[in-house]
């Protein structure tokens, strides 16, 4: 297998355009084999963005493995450039008919050595297991997450692969899905002073600092955050830049922000793309510690789903939560979510 590497924004533009359909076809094959469903098929603009975007805050590395000219394996690593510069979030996949021949191990080894050479030694990755696949093997041996909450069957290829490559199963997340229409029937009211604002699109100028503060807290104040790096540096300029990137890749963000007077108390965001307008993807949700205990998490999610149902074409929203985060799971149950898949979060330190 011949492995090449592209850093986002640094490839030859014509070569990248030619590569996109090939990678889309590869990623679609991988997703169809995973059993996660067509909602998880790759989005062309997201893929283009991961190859072409030039941001001062983040970069994506893409590795492509070919045999006789055909793509047989591919990997990605997301890098933060202004904070957590020793971390990388990676992922790799091998064409289903060519698995168990050492291609995955060869690709991952190359990725790790390139990342280590770049000072990226705190690695994290994930594997997504559909609910039906996990429940098909309840009697076999299971690997427990380091948090103590949740297990995955050892016999699954991804679990064996990552264990064999020295990754530790740090945490398990539940992926769940909710129809946005359900929110209209749910109780949004609270008998307190909090006000919830919702909007679609970029963060308004007068809320940039509020969102920057919440994004900063989001990187430290959720269960397990310390495993994937320290506090992220966020200011109004980075929020603007993040919004500009979303627009560039055809993604709209729906935000609900809770305020007590002018003080930010919590937020939740869902993104949807122009190419897949009926599907929403949950981004961060956070209620600041001082403001917990007012059902703000559920109220934010319900408000955001109502706004999506009213002002967008989004019909369903997928979300991910750490299984030990029982508060957020309860909030999601209240907001109408049902389990779709289980996600193993893995870490490895190259030191
Ligand atoms: C995980 C994945 C990349 C493995 O690719 P692969 O080319 O089949 O893996 P390799 O042949 O290099 O296997 C390396 C080791 O992993 C383990 N392994 C991989 N697949 C396994 C399986 N089906 N059963 C048991 N062990 C397995 C073995 O220890 C193997 O070494 P061995 O063959 O010497 O026993 C592939 O299954 C895949 O693309 N899955 C979907 C994508 C994904 O979930 N990626 C998550 C990881 S980032």
From TrEMBL:
Coiled coil: none annotated. Residues 18-189 form the N-acetyltransferase domain. One of its GO terms (molecular function) is acyltransferase activity, transferring groups other than amino-acyl groups. The keyword Repeat does not apply. Transmembrane segments: none annotated. The keyword Signal does not apply. Pfam families: Acetyltransf_1 (PF00583). Keywords: Transferase. It comes from the Bacteria. InterPro entries: Acyl_CoA_acyltransferase, GNAT_dom. This is GNAT family N-acetyltransferase. It comes from Brevibacterium sediminis.
């Amino acid at each position: 297998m011949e492995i090449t590497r592209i850093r986002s924004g640094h490839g030859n533009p014509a070569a990248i355009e030619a590569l996109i359909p090939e990678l889309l076809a590869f990623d679609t094959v991988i997703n169809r084999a995973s059993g996660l469903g067509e909602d998880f098929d790759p989005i062309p603009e997201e893929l283009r963005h991961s190859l072409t975007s030039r941001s001062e805050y983040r970069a994506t590395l893409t590795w492509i493995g070919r045999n006789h000219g055909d793509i047989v394996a591919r990997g990605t690593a997301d890098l933060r450039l202004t904070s957590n510069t020793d971390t990388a979030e990676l992922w790799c996949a091998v064409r289903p008919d060519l698995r168990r021949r050492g291609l995955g191990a060869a690709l991952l080894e190359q990725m790790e050595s390139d990342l280590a050479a770049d000072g990226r030694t705190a690695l994290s990755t994930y594997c997504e297991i559909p609910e039906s696949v996990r429940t098909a093997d309840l009697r076999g041996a299971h690997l427990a997450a380091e948090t103590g909450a949740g297990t995955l069957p050892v016999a699954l290829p991804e679990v064996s692969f990552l264990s064999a490559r020295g990754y530790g199963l740090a945490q398990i997340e539940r992926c769940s899905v909710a129809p946005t229409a359900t929110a209209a029937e749910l109780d949004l009211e609270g008998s307190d002073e909090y006000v919830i604002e919702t909007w679609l699109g970029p963060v308004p100028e007068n809320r940039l600092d509020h969102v920057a503060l919440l994004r900063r807290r989001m990187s430290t104040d959720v269960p397990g955050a310390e495993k994937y790096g320290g506090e992220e540096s966020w200011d109004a300029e980075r929020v603007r830049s993040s919004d500009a990137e979303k627009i560039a890749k055809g993604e709209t963000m729906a935000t609900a922000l809770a305020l007590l007077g002018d003080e930010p108390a919590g937020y939740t965001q869902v993104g949807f793309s122009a190419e897949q307008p009926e599907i929403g993807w949950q981004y961060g949700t956070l209620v600041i510690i001082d403001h917990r205990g007012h059902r703000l998490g559920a109220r934010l999610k319900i408000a955001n789903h109502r706004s999506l149902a009213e002002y967008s074409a989004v019909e369903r929203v997928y979300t991910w939560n750490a299984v030990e985060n029982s508060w957020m799971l309860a909030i999601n149950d209240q907001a109408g979510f049902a389990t779709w898949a289980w996600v193993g979060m893995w870490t490895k330190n190259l030191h």
